[in-house]
Amino acid sequence: MNGLAVICRRVVQIYRAEGGDVVALAGVDLEIAPGEKVALVGPSGSGKSTLIALLAGLMRPSAGRVHLGQTDIGKLTDGELARLRGTDLGVVLQGATRNLLPYATLEDNIWLAQRRVRKVRPADVEPAESVAALVGLLGYGDRRIDQLSPGAQQRAALAVGLAASPGLLLVDEPTSRLDPVARDEVLSALDRVNAERGTTIVAVTHDMAVGEAFGRVVTIRDGRVGAEGRGGREFAVVAGDGTVQLPPAMLASYPPGTLFSVDDVDGAVMLEAEKPAAG
Ligand code: ADP
Ligand code: MG
User: Fold this and answer.
1) Residue limits of the ABC transporter domain (predicted)?
2) What's the confidence (pLDDT) of residue 279?
3) 169 in ligand 1 pocket by Cβ < 6 Å?
4) I need a labelling partner for 174 at 20 to 30 A (CA). Which of 30, 51, 150, 242 fits?
């Protein structure tokens, strides 16, 4: 299975709530190449979970387009969307045990995940042992989930998310509440999945170590892509509507409504704030 590309164009997501509509995503533009690893960061309420839910095919965008591979998910019927979820997408929810049956063995958990997708016989799917090996749990197949360490449980949750060999793996907070050793084991498991299978991986995280390991860090702010880090360097991103967000730290000095003169000086964009008129 090759990695799935992700393209979001001006994606808007509005929740209809009692107190009024909530604009969770206000025009997200994002391109992820097949086999890329992307960390999604941003303050609470910025729209990360909403974006993951869209990429997971759990809903369709209110406006804009979400392409997963060749497929525009806005154009799919409910049945087609469900099939896509089952065959191409792997989702690992925050909190390892929410993805697992605690009293069943790792092997049974993997097999249940494989069978949930479609009617298959054991011979039709990847052996549980090989999925377990991929996340560093070779030999743990007959261990019950509740007897595994938190770090091994998190990797078991990855194994379940990978059971149907998806082209896109979405993971919410894969390293939260893990000690550094367990965290590194989770990161190497994700790395191995990516290297050996070419699986595209998108992880929501508060953990800088994930961002460093992934190399590409996309910051979501107020429902938009606010900034991007690549190889340790920080970049502003031009959105589909032409807007660029200032780094949050600058907003104290340049409040909304500030006027800038804009000049392009040999590829360097100079913003000069208009001084408030005297008197
Ligand atoms: P994050 O994961 O970055 O914390 P979310 O995607 O969960 O952000 O939320 C983005 C915004 O949408 C927030 O203002 C949140 O309150 C709102 N929101 C999320 N889910 C719902 C929902 N089901 N109904 C109404 N509002 C929601
Ligand atoms: Mg969230």
Assistant:
1) 9-247
2) 55
3) no
4) 30
271 in a structural domain? no
Cα dihedral sign, 201-203-208-210: negative
Query: How many independent structural domains does the chain possess?
Result: 1
- What would the pLDDT profile of 111-123 be if each residue is shown by its tens digit? 999 988 677 788 7
Q: Is residue 94 part of a domain?
A: yes
Residue type, 202: V
CATH code for position 204: 3.40.50.300
Q: Hey, whose CA ends up nearest to atom 24 of ligand 1?
A: 15
| Domain span at 123 | 6-250
How far is 209 from 212, CA to CA, in rounded Å? 5
Other residues' Cβ atoms within 10 Å of the Cβ of residue 91: 20
Q: Ligand 1 in contact with 226 (CB < 6 A)? A: no
Would the pTM of this model clear 0.90, i.e. be above it? yes
For 229-247, how does the pLDDT look when each residue is reduced to its tens digit (9 = 90+)? 998 888 999 988 888 988 8
In the 8-state DSSP scheme, what is residue 157? Answer: H
- For the chain, the average pLDDT equals 93
Only one residue has tokens 């164009």, namely 9
Choose the residue to mutate in 8, 15, 44, 59 for probing ligand 1, maximizing ligand atoms within 8 Å of C-beta.
Answer: 15
Output phi, psi for 49, to 5 deg.
-65, -35
